[in-house]
Amino acid sequence: MRTAVTGLGIVSASGIGVYENLEALRNGRSGISDFPRILETSNMLPVGEILLINEELAAVAGIGAGKNLSRTALLGIIAVKEALKDAALPDGLRVGLVSSTSVGGMDLTEHFFAEFMNDSSSGRLRDVVMHDCCASTEAIAAYCGIKGYRTTVSTACSSAANAIMIGDRLIRHGILDCVVAGGADALSAFTLNGFKSLRILDDKRCRPFDQTRAGLNLGEGAGYIVLQREALLDKVPYCFLKGYANRNDAHHQTASSEEGNGAFLAMSDALSKAGISPDQVDYVNVHGTGTGNNDLSEGKALKRLFGDKIPYFSSTKGYTGHALAAAGGIEAVYSALAIKYGQVWPNIHFSEPVSELQLVPQTSLLEGADVACVVSNSFGFGGNCSSIVFAKD
Amino acid sequence: MGLYVSNITSDSQVVTDVKVLVPDAGVRRRMSRVIRMAVSTAVECVGGIEGIDGLDAIITATGYGCLADSERFLRNVISDKEDLLNPTPFIQSTFNTVGGQIALLRHNHCYNMTYVNRIHSFEDALLDAFMRAEDGEGGRMLVGAFDERTDSQYEIMKRMGLWRKHDCGEGSVFVLLTSQKEDSSIAEVLEIDFPSDSIGEQDIAQRYGCSDDDVILYNVCCTMEIYPTISASVFAQAVEKIKKGASKVLVYNEMWGMTPTVVILGCIV
Fold first, then answer.
1. How far apart are CA A373 and CA A392, in angstroms?
2. d(CA B200, CA A276)
3. Nearest to A32 by CA among A62, A4, A12
4. If you ran DSSP here, which 8-state letter would residue A192 be given?
5. How far is the CA of B190 from the CAs of A331, B174, B242, in angstroms?
C-alpha cells in the first residue's frame, strides 16, 4: 500500500498559495524583506515576513472580523484550506489533521504579557487563550471542517516533517483514510530575539551553502500536504510518500555534530525504508539554513551518503527564510512541485562553495528534468533530524 | 506484538539522587526545574542513565512545555527592550527540550518525538508507541509526560475560571514500554481510543466491554490537582491497580472542553 500526496497548501514570504510560491521559485525571487514591517520589534534584521496584518490574513482565510485567532492559526487555516480544496477529497473519508508549530499563539501572548507583567489583573484573556500549540490545531480543524483524529507535534525546526511521518502511520494503521499534515509558525518577537541571542541571524540575506554564509533569516508561514491512502485515489496524485526517518543527532542541544551524524542517519534510514538507493535520488531539498554549523554538518552528511555522486540539491530558505516548524511543510510542498513539474529550484544568493565541502548547489532553474525522487531534510534543536522521501511512483 | 508496560515512574517516586541520575554537573546546572523533574523521572524509569542506551524510541508529551523558561525569556525580551539577551531560557523553552536532553545524556540516536496536544498529548504519544510496536519498530520505548506549574500560569488560568473545582498541579510520569512481552512486564496496553464525543458514565462500560470487576478511572475524579497531561498520572494509578490484581482498567480522560480519550490496560496473561 502506498500513501499518495493529493493536495498542497502553502503560505510563505514568497506568496500566498501554490501559484505565487511556484512563480517565486521559478524566477529565483526571494520573499525576504530587509526588516520586519508587520512584527513589532526594534530588530532591523531581514525576515521572511508575510506582509499582511492578522486582520488581512483573516480576510484571506475567509474568517469574519473579531475572532482574534493567533497568526499561526491564521496561516495554518489559509494553507490547510488550499490543500483540501486542491485535494478535492471524495465524501465519506475519515480525514484527520497532524499539525505542528513551535511558537503557537506567541504573537498574541506577547501583547498580553507586556500588560500582565506590570499588573497581573490586566491583559486581555482573549490574547492568551491561544497560547498553547494545540489551540492552533483545534482552530485549523474547526475552520477547515476536519473532524477526525488530530494531534500536534513540536520538535523545533523538524516539526512539520515529523507531522507528515505521523500522518502516514495513521493511514497505514487504518485509523484515518486521509491526513492533512504539515506545520505553521508566525514570526514573533520571542523567536526573533531568541535566534538573535544565539547569534545565528544574518544581518544580510541568508546564503545557504555559501562560504560567506553568516546565519539564517527567520521566516513565517505554513505548509501542508494532503496524504491519502492509494486505494482511495480518484485522480493522479502529485507524488507518493515513500519513506521517512526521524533520528537524533544527540550531540548538543542547539548545534549539529561536525560529521552530521543525525542528518546522515535520517537520510539513509529514510531511503532504506523507501527501498530507494542513494543513486536513485534526483534532488535533495536540503535544510540549508545558512548557519555556519548547519550547512557544514548537512554537507558532510550529504558527502557521506552520496559519495562523489551528489544529486542536485538546493536550499529554498533564501526564498522564505527559515519558518521553523512550518519549514518542513513548506519544503514538502516545494518537493512535491519539483516532481510534478520536473524542475529543480535554484539555491539563491550562492556564489562560492564552502571550502571544507566544495559542494555546489543548483543555482539556476533546472527545467525538463525527470525528478522522480526527492529527499527533503528538516533538522532542529534538541538534535531532531528528519528526512522524508517523495517519489513519482 | 503488543504494547507492554515494563516500568512506570512518577516524579514523586524518584528516590535516586539527581547527581547519580544526571552525573554531568554542567548539564544539571543548566536544567530548569521542569527539565530536571522530567529528565530525573525518565532516567529513574529506565533504571539509571545506562538504561537510555537500549531505548529504540523516546516519545515525550506536554501540554504547555517549559513554561517558566518561556516566561523568563519573554520577560527579558520586554524588560530589556530586545537587547543583550541570555539565550539559555530560549533554548530551554523549546517543547522537545526534555526528549532531546534524554537522548543527549547517552548520545542515543533513536526516534525522538514530542507531542504538544494539550490534554491528549500523552495518549497521542502512547498511540505513536502502539503503532511503532505494530510496525515491528517498537523494541524498548520510553514514553513520558510532563507539565509544570508557574505562578503566572496559575493566575491566568484562575482569571479564566479554571480552578473552581480543581487546583493547579504539575508533574511528570515516564513509562517504559516494550513491544514484546517480557518477564518484567506488569501490564498490557490493550486499546487507545479517541472518541469524537463525551461518553456518559453508564455507557462507557458497555461500549468498551468492561465487566463489573473492571475498574474505570476518570481523570477529573482521581485527583484534586490537575494539569494538561494529568491523564499520564491516572495511567500510573491504573498500572498500580493492575499490579494489585485488577484484570482490566480503563482510563477516561476528558476536561477543558476537549473530546475524551480512552486507554485500556489489562493484566499480563
1. 6
2. 50
3. A12
4. H
5. 37, 18, 13
Domain of residue B63 covers 4-178
- Between the alpha carbon of residue A166 and those of residues A178, A182, A245, A294, B200, the distances in Å are 12, 10, 11, 25, 30
What region does B257 belong to: left with phi over 0, alpha with psi -120 to 50, or beta? left
Q: How many CB atoms lie within 10 A of CB A266?
A: 32
- For chains A and B, count residue pairs whose Cβ atoms are closer than 8 Å: 173
CA–CA separation, A162 and A100 (whole Å): 8
Type and span of the H or E element at A183: strand A178-185
Q: What CATH number labels A3-391?
A: 3.40.47.10
Residue that terminates a domain, selected from B151, B178, B205: B178
Q: Closest chain B residue to A191 measured between Cα atoms?
A: B90
Report the alpha-carbon distance of residue A336 to residue A348 in Å, rounded.
20
Residues of A in contact with B117 (CB under 8 A): 133-134, 137, 150-153
Same-domain check for residues B8 and B123: yes
pTM for this predicted structure: 0.98
Is residue A376 within 8 angstroms of chain B, CB to CB? no
B107 & B135 share domain: yes
Give the catalytic positions of A in this structure. 157, 287, 322
CATH code at B75? Answer: 3.40.47.10
- Asked whether the beta carbons of B200 and B218 are under 8 A apart, the reply is no
B136–chain A nearest CA distance, Å: 13
Tell me: ipTM over 0.90. yes
**Hey, are the CB atoms on A248 and B97 less than 8 Å from each other?**
no
Q: Are residues B165 and B212 in the same domain?
A: no
Per-residue pLDDT tens listing for chain A (393 residues)? 899 999 999 999 999 999 999 999 999 999 999 999 999 999 999 999 999 999 999 999 999 888 999 999 999 999 999 999 999 999 999 999 999 999 999 999 999 999 999 999 999 999 999 999 999 999 999 999 999 999 999 999 999 999 999 999 999 999 999 999 999 999 999 999 999 999 999 999 999 999 999 999 999 999 999 999 999 898 999 999 999 999 999 999 899 999 999 999 999 999 999 999 999 999 999 999 999 999 999 999 999 999 999 999 999 999 999 999 999 999 999 999 999 999 999 999 999 999 999 999 999 999 999 999 999 999 999 999 999 999 999
